[in-house]
């Protein structure tokens, strides 16, 4: 299984390196369209290789997807936490009841064995 994972990661690395080498041309990214930048007075532009734009878009998409999924599963995590707390509360209650029953019967040896 380890070798399959390494082979898969190597294949992804080859694809990413090939993509980067094929898209080395410089592109200009503008914060706003030219007309809007003149109107607002903010004309920020950045010149970067095209592959960095592609990689940044993939990473941003992954981060947005992970965050979206984390937010969506919040109700499941809350339900699991509530169930765990209820289980712990019931376990403590059972332990108290066993101890109380053993004390009421008066046999301290059995009370120690049930713990």
Automatic annotation (TrEMBL):
<dbReference type="InterPro" id="IPR010445">
    <property type="entry name" value="LapA_dom"/>
</dbReference>
<protein>
    <submittedName>
        <fullName>Phosphate transport regulator</fullName>
    </submittedName>
</protein>
<dbReference type="GO" id="GO:0005886">
    <property type="term" value="C:plasma membrane"/>
</dbReference>
<dbReference type="Pfam" id="PF06305">
    <property type="entry name" value="LapA_dom"/>
</dbReference>
């Amino acid at each position: 299984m380890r070798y399959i994972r390494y082979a898969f990661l190597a294949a992804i690395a080859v694809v990413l390196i090939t993509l980067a080498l094929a898209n080395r041309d410089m592109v200009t990214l503008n914060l706003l369209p030219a007309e809007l930048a003149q109107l607002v007075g903010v004309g920020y532009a950045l010149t970067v290789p095209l592959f960095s734009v592609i990689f940044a878009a993939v990473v941003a998409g992954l981060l947005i997807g992970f965050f979206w999924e984390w937010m969506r599963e919040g109700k499941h995590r809350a339900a699991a936490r509530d169930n765990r707390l209820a289980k712990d509360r019931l376990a403590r209650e059972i332990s108290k009841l066993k101890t109380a029953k053993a004390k009421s019967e008066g046999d301290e040896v059995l009370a120690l064995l049930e713990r």
